[in-house]
Amino acid sequence: MAAYSDSERLAELRAFDATKAGVKGLVDAGFTSIPRFFVHPDLDLERTPGANFRVPVVDLGGVAADPARRAAAAAEAGRAAEELGLFHVVNHGVPQQVLDEMLQRVRGFHEDGVEVKGEYYTRDQSRKVVYNSNFDLYQAPAANWRDTLFCSMAPEPPRPEELPLACRDITFKYTSYMQKLGTILLELLSEALGLNPNHLIEMECANGVSVLMHYYPACPEPHLTLGTSKHSDSSFITILLQDSLGGLQVLHQNQWLNIPPVPGSLVVNVGDLLQLISNDKFKSVEHRVLAKSSGPRISVACFLSTYRATSTRLYGPLRELTSHNNPLRYKEVTMKDFLTHYNRKGLDGRSALDHFRL
Questions:
Q1: How many domains does the chain have?
Q2: 127, 130, 145, 231: which sits with the fewest CB atoms below 10 Å from its CB?
């Protein structure tokens, strides 16, 4: 690909952004090749084993009433968080009908007309409801083949009329289920760390809930770009609902492993802030999404975190998990400062945690 100047690239980014139509707009316009700013020049698609990796599965059935099942679930979640940073969760209490409707409604929003979607298109990250393509469009080395509707749902949810009609009711319902599930998961992970079950909840690790609704259209040149480039999440934990198309991969022992969809399950992954407060005991897994010639792929990521806008609470490695032989590995940071760094850096392939290491 011929090189082009920074000014040319910026002009193309601005022209794309001004359409408010996202990647979906390029597909609708009949593009048979991707714009230059989507090309990832050093794309590594080779380090992937042929067979799908066996992802740990945590069964939440009976954990509320049966101490033995609860202990087994906590041990399995803790082991997965240490070794891989990701696991499937089953018998999670979210009805299949809710999962199916959430995916259907997300697709409905993204396939609505630009005259409807455009009302929500913005780069103002302080807003509770944001639709755009690539939150880091102007920072990232290359853009990703993906559009996103972002909704900040807790602790101060948007007014119903602030959400698009296409996915309004289901987003509130889905968030309610995610808050209940997130509480259970953080209790189990607290226990896995040898802490009181309420420890992470009392640290406000689930006070903030953001729901990110991703749409990955079919790509005419999937070998040149990614749906989402390599990154780890800024959350404590992320709960992911993905459709049957697949494409999610995690980086483990220098290999990209496929995370195939399991019907009815949800994917849970450790985020940067949980790795930070666990002093590297739990791993914030680096992951990406492949671009595909088929599509669209729909996914919904629920980020559980503290409330970024107003919290002044400092987060650092838990004293209970540090010792003379396991010293502090990170400095303390507020959620606001962590997210400011994360968003300014964008998905550039480097961990945001590196900035806060001692």
A1: 1
A2: 127
Mean pLDDT value across residues 286-306: 94
- The residue that leads in pLDDT, 336 or 58, is 58
Q: What is the pTM of this model?
A: 0.94
pLDDT band with cut points at 50, 70 and 90 for residue 144: very high
Say how far apart CA 252 and CA 49 lie, in whole Å.
11
> 146 Cβ partners below 8 Å, 6+ apart?
23, 133, 134, 214, 215, 216, 227, 228, 289
Q: Give Cβ neighbours of residue 275 (< 8 Å, ≥ 6 apart).
A: 85, 232, 282, 283, 284, 353
Per-residue pLDDT tens over the stretch 68-83: 999 999 999 999 999 9
Name the H helices within 229-333.
272-277
Quote the pLDDT of residue 27: 96
Helix ranges restricted to H, the chain = 6-18, 22-28, 67-83, 96-110, 114-117, 168-192, 199-202, 272-277, 335-345
Nearest to 171 by CA among 285, 225, 282, 179: 179
Q: How many CA atoms lie within 13 A of 119 on its CB side?
A: 10
Please name the residues in contact with 254: beta carbons below 8 A apart, sequence gap of 6 or more: 47
Strand 266-270 vs strand 86-90: parallel, antiparallel, or unpaired?
A: antiparallel
C-beta separation of 298 from 106 below 8 A: yes
Q: Which residue range forms the structural domain that includes residue 129?
A: 6-356
Specify the range with the lowest mean pLDDT, choosing from 1-15, 171-185, 247-261, 327-341: 1-15
For the record, the structure tokens of 346 come out as 């964008």
Give me the residues paired with residue 314 across strands: 334
**Would you say residue 138 lies in a domain?**
yes
- Residues 338 and 307 sit within 8 Å (Cβ to Cβ): no
Give yes or no for a contact between 273 and 338, defined as CB atoms under 8 angstroms apart: yes
Q: Is 1 exposed, middle or buried (0-12, 13-18, 19+ CB in 10 A)?
A: exposed
What are the C-alpha distances in Å from 289 to residues 35, 131, 226, 248, 251?
A: 19, 19, 6, 5, 11
Q: Where is pLDDT greater, at 275 or 41? A: 275
CATH number at residue 60: 2.60.120.330
